[in-house]
């Protein structure tokens, strides 16, 4: 049975964007509400990290693009399990604060970033074979994660 999330029209686009955006906004509210937006980064690394509100805003945009990617994949004729790959990336992103000890362990943060970046590239390759536009919608996430990886590994 088809749901609104499977609709390839405008209603489906908005549903696919609204769900991950709502999840990341709630996640951001919890992180900032608990005062958990801190880290054990070195001062050299900290100077490369944007303010928390900017980071949170970037994730809202990235999650909207994940939703759009799923919609583009469906609209381009993709079906089945691969259409849910952006949702799995969103879950991986939402879990990031949990598996990094609420950002208190930069070693776990670096490893988590590397894993999430690898998963993002894998999703882009899997979806891009069928619907290239769906992969392009995820590219900004790969770029952001590449930046974050550079902060962890190079600064």
TrEMBL record:
Keyword presence, Transmembrane: yes
Transmembrane portions of the chain: 12-34, 54-73, 85-102, 108-127, 134-154
Keywords: Membrane, Transmembrane, Transmembrane helix
Main location per the UniProt record: membrane
Subcellular location: Membrane
Family: Belongs to the TspO/BZRP family.
Name assigned to this protein: Tryptophan-rich sensory protein
């Amino acid at each position: 049975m088809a749901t609104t999330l499977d609709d390839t029209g405008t209603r489906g686009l908005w549903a696919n964007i609204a769900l991950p955006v709502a999840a990341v906004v709630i996640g951001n509210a919890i992180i900032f509400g608990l005062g958990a937006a801190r880290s054990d980064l070195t001062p050299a690394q900290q100077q490369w990290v944007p303010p928390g509100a900017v980071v949170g805003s970037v994730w809202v945009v990235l999650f909207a693009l994940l939703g759009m990617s799923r919609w583009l994949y469906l609209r381009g004729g993709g079906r089945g399990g691969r259409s849910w790959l952006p949702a799995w990336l969103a879950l991986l992103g939402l879990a990031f604060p949990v598996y990094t000890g609420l950002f208190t362990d930069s070693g776990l943060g670096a490893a988590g970033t590397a894993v999430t970046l690898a998963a993002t590239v894998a999703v882009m390759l899997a979806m891009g074979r069928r619907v290239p536009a769906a992969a392009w919608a995820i590219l900004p996430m790969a770029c952001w994660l590449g930046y974050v990886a550079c902060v962890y590994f190079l600064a």
